[in-house]
Amino acid sequence: MSIQQENRFQAIIAHAKEYGFVFPSSEIYEGLSAVYDYGPYGCELKKNIRDYWWKSMTQLNDNIVGIDAAIFMHPAIWKASGHVDSFSVPKSWHWKERKKKNMRCLKQWMSYWQKKIIPV
Question: Which of 40, 63, 74, 86 measures 20 to 30 Å from 96, CA to CA?
């Protein structure tokens, strides 16, 4: 990430903290690194993103349905679904490549949501 991008990212984080979107978790007890609690605006933004995602994934597609299930399941379920036997992470999937891909996705996400959610 370039210095300009890093500065922009830090400015967005500072703005989110200043206007009550997020707060460092356990802040009065010296906080936890990289863990945040949602403030009033953050809760609304998170809800809007979740609702938009849910609608675009389930309600606008005839062949997809939504469920709300626990991720803590009996090991037999994970085995039956194929997650145990066939799931693998390619050895070439290096953490630096993941970080680059995540940053590309974050940039695309930020530019998209700036147009959709944050009024200009």
Answer: 86
